[in-house]
Amino acid sequence: MDDADADAFAERVFGAVLGAFETMSIYVGDRLGLYRTLGSGTAWSVEAFAEASGMHVRYAREWLEQQAVAGILRVDDDGRFVLPAAHADVLLDADSLRFTAPLTRMVQAAAARMPELLTAYRDGGGVTWAQFGDDARDAQGDVNRPWFERELAGALAGVPSVGAVLSRRGARIADIGCGHGWSSIAIARACPNAEVIGVDVDEPSLAAARGHAAGTPNVSFVHAAGAALRERGPFDAAFIFEALHDMPDPVAVLAAVRAALRPDGVAIVMDEAVADTFAPDGDEVERVMYGYSLFLCLPDSKATPGSVATGTVMRPDVLAQYARDAGFTGVEVLPIEGFAAFRFYRLV
């Protein structure tokens, strides 16, 4: 054994534990509204913060000091605590592309189901999206919202073959696996002459989507599986945003998409921008996607008997095979870059 290697790995494990504790502390600040109380740039004494936030003063002191030691808060010379503007952008601004505080809810959603996950890992079963609960639903919706609202319409319009379809007067557009509906809403607002239908199997997510869509008359939401899409066509365009890898039978969904599309329609899948092949020296995108897969996406998919169990790390060749099995000839990667950690595919 190389002592230096062992010491380095021990330090890495310690760092992972430290990161886990700090993730939990950010979750507390997010879910209890503590960052909203702090605001950006305002200095707070422990007592004033406790009163304003409704937090017990002893816990307030411990949390504030922990946040300061973690480098999340700044402490002024007079001992008051401040949330720097740059950190507020990440933790507080729901419209910012840097808004990543919701990701801590994903971690908490998985941790809360650890007993069920351990059982699933042994018996091959799963844990449903409903079991992961509101933390997972809200995290998925909130972290993708700024990207969908600010970047999605422009990214799609920037691909001429896609933009031309979306700009058709009276176009019918399907968004399968729409979740909280932000992708559907973004497309509907960018294409006011189109009809957008969001489809999902999770009713609580659809209830949230309907609330978000108030004031956007050309979008509606349907509680249905993606395979039911063929009964609701024809469509000019069909999208699946970061959802195909969760589906127990992706081929059936893609076949339904193909059947529901007009001959000159477009089918787009946006999914994780993972590497083409597995390698043990994967980058941070690979590492985080395997985390999502192990603790959330794969167990959710495995909760349905007969699932193909894709997992979050869906390689391009896997998607291409699904597309061919569904009757398409394959996929092409669209020239959309810098859209978070996602890749856009057109099914051809």
From TrEMBL:
<feature type="domain" description="S-adenosylmethionine-dependent methyltransferase Rv2258c-like winged HTH">
    <location>
        <begin position="23"/>
        <end position="91"/>
    </location>
</feature>
<dbReference type="InterPro" id="IPR029063">
    <property type="entry name" value="SAM-dependent_MTases_sf"/>
</dbReference>
<dbReference type="InterPro" id="IPR036390">
    <property type="entry name" value="WH_DNA-bd_sf"/>
</dbReference>
<keyword id="KW-0830">Ubiquinone</keyword>
<keyword id="KW-0808">Transferase</keyword>
<dbReference type="GO" id="GO:0032259">
    <property type="term" value="P:methylation"/>
</dbReference>
<dbReference type="GO" id="GO:0008168">
    <property type="term" value="F:methyltransferase activity"/>
</dbReference>
<protein>
    <submittedName>
        <fullName>Ubiquinone/menaquinone biosynthesis C-methylase UbiE</fullName>
    </submittedName>
</protein>
<dbReference type="InterPro" id="IPR041698">
    <property type="entry name" value="Methyltransf_25"/>
</dbReference>
<feature type="domain" description="Methyltransferase">
    <location>
        <begin position="173"/>
        <end position="265"/>
    </location>
</feature>
<dbReference type="InterPro" id="IPR053173">
    <property type="entry name" value="SAM-binding_MTase"/>
</dbReference>
<dbReference type="Pfam" id="PF13649">
    <property type="entry name" value="Methyltransf_25"/>
</dbReference>
<dbReference type="Pfam" id="PF21320">
    <property type="entry name" value="WHD_Rv2258c"/>
</dbReference>
<keyword id="KW-0489">Methyltransferase</keyword>
<dbReference type="InterPro" id="IPR048711">
    <property type="entry name" value="WHD_Rv2258c"/>
</dbReference>
